[in-house]
Design a protein that fits this description.
This protein has eleven helices and twelve strands. It is an alpha/beta fold. It starts with a strand and ends with a helix. The structure holds 1,4-dihydronicotinamide adenine dinucleotide.
Amino acid sequence: MEAVLIPGDGIGREIAASVVRVSEALETGIVWKPYQAGAAYYEKTGALFEEGMLEAIQSTGTALKGPTATPIGTGFRSINVQLRQMFHTYANLRPVHSIPGVKTRFDNVDLVIVRENSEDLYKGLEYRVDENTAHGIKLITRPASERIVRFAFDYARRNGRHKVTAVHKANIMKETDGLFLEAAKTVAGEYPDIRFDSVIIDALCMKLVTDPTQFDVLVAPNLYGDIISDLCAGLVGGLGFAPSANIGKDTVIYEAVHGSAPDIAGKGIANPTALLMAFEMLLRDHGMKEKADCLQTALKKALADTQAATPDVGGTGTTSAFTDAVIDGILENK
Ligand code: NAI
């Protein structure tokens, strides 16, 4: 199969190189079609991404994307948000689970976050009213809310999950979050085999950091989904362990949840685990379960090796030494 590879900015090139090496070691037969995109490419060329990239994503239907930087408070709109809108990848699937060997407060986290990816405050409907006032529109629609909640229930059913929890703040945002919650309750009625409940976003944050085992599948509007994803990544060791898939009808864009990590870019110490886990999701979605399992086992082993593991998880390794350890594990398992 062919897949588009977008290394992106900052540590993107380093961690994308790791995926390419691991893909070769696994003999996946994936032919990568690399394209440049991001802030650095924009500075060089005035364009956000290389010509032909959109057509390549359209024709392959699959992309693995490294992080792309977005200027804060000014400049161009996030490439991620633009790609999600262009390819109608309405669902952002973010599995989060504890990894043996990675020390955190909890060792039994096993959650899935389903984030609505197409509307809410991310729609970009904001403007300055005057010098001292800005106005943003939080757009929530019934079709998009029902579609994402249905996605969450279908995912739960397919993956042996037992409960879906809708995340909202409908006590305050009675119209927008009220509509999301109403849609969630309607859809929940179609899935009598899966438990359903709801939780207010602030209470959820407290519950997640005190006992994350109370939750199974969380479905949330765009902004809350974004924030709780990072919180949950923190529960399992940080952003280096959080993969995601942006899923549409015809296109899936896999990526790590983390950003371009400018503070460590170019130092060769970035943790490639999250992008490798996103790659693992890609393999599973394309029927390569054995290769995905082999990668998962090799990753766990490499993470437990403090000489190979990268500094963000207390190791002393580099990106390439860690990748070597993953590849050694793959070759052992073959
Ligand atoms: P960040 O995720 O890049 O970094 C936060 C902290 O986590 C930093 O200390 C960084 O060194 C560390 N970190 C992140 N990934 C790591 C990895 N793989 N290995 C080791 N340490 C890692 O978040 P920040 O600094 O807020 O954003 C930097 C840029 O990335 C911004 O321009 C932002 O817009 C962009 N961004 C892009 C995303 C994407 O393309 N999906 C997602 C989030 C941010």
